Amino acid sequence: MSPGAVVVPVEESSTLRNTVGYVVRRAVESGEPSTLHFVFPLSSRGTVGDEYDRASDLLDRIEVWVEEDRGENGDRVTVETAVVGADEYLFSPGDYADAIAEYADEHGVREVVLDPEYRPTGSTPLLPALEAEITGTGLDVEEAPVERETQRDRLVRRSGVGQFLLLFALSAGFYLFLAGWSTAPYDLITGAVSAGAVAATLWHISFTGAVDPRRLAAQFGRLSLYAVFLLWEIAKANLQIAYVVLHPSLPIDPKLIEFDADVWSTVPAATLANSITLTPGTLTVDVERRHFTIHSLTAGAREDLLDGKLERAVRFVFYGRSAARRPTPGEREEVEE
């Protein structure tokens, strides 16, 4: 039996990211070796099809989140992911509890942490019944103490001093940038007043999560490296397109391609889409969640896109080095022309 082990059943939800963060933080703060088991109970028989692909994609994302959350002091925290119940038909809370308990027994785990918005069968809330069923198997059950969202998205959210200070710093920096980085007393005072007004007005709206200075600084540092990388890619693509335009035979091969990008939230997807458009030879035609439709002017531009340099660089900025090593669009063989 592993004393620091815990099983976390997962499904897409509004609180899943915070639940993963809570479990990782608790394991790191314990100071003991811990194994976190994230399991996806399938809601239908079999392991072939969209349901299994969705489960695998979610578990991959969770591994990246754990890597991001455990930081430098999380070397004692290990992660295991699995799809459970694939050879059974899961219908009732008891069915899900049995699948989870069977996995826990096989791996010597005695504790289960539940996401407060965990709904394995879709929109039907099963958490109280599922918690009772899991407790009946002899396992210890805890509901992750993370804030639930209301049924309607709220414009104003609970925010702390960190959000206010970050927004103030960004607003003041932008004001001084427009003023030519002037250090005159008038510019400093008016910049502070303007930044204070912006921060006081928008700090409950602009940021939805807690500000982690170390993580934020790391992302800004990686973003600076990405800006240099993107400028280099743009310069190379300009030369390639100039060659094509000036060539007597005009060797173009325009095509539309579609693929699912390996990014998992709005800002990274928007960053990737804009980066593709900024690079001559490729144009983002449409983005729906992770599904990208791209127009490529030449075969070379298409190959560069599918090599995944931009996608990996974007993952590096937002998710860290471990995410940058994930397969490229070409390696995933998901591209449609």
TrEMBL record:
The keyword Aminoacyl-tRNA synthetase belongs to this UniProt entry's keyword annotation: no
Principal location: membrane
InterPro entries named in the record: Cation_antiport_E
Record carries keyword Metal-binding: no
Membrane association type: Multi-pass membrane protein
Pfam family, one: MNHE
GO cellular component terms, semicolon-separated: plasma membrane
Tree of life domain: Archaea
Listed transmembrane segments: 164-182, 188-211, 223-246
Keywords from the named record: Cell membrane, Membrane, Transmembrane, Transmembrane helix
Subcellular location as annotated: Cell membrane
Matches recorded under NCBIfam families: PRK12652.1
Annotated protein name in UniProt: Monovalent cation/H+ antiporter subunit E
Organism this protein belongs to: Halobaculum halobium
Lineage of the organism: Archaea, Methanobacteriati, Methanobacteriota, Stenosarchaea group, Halobacteria
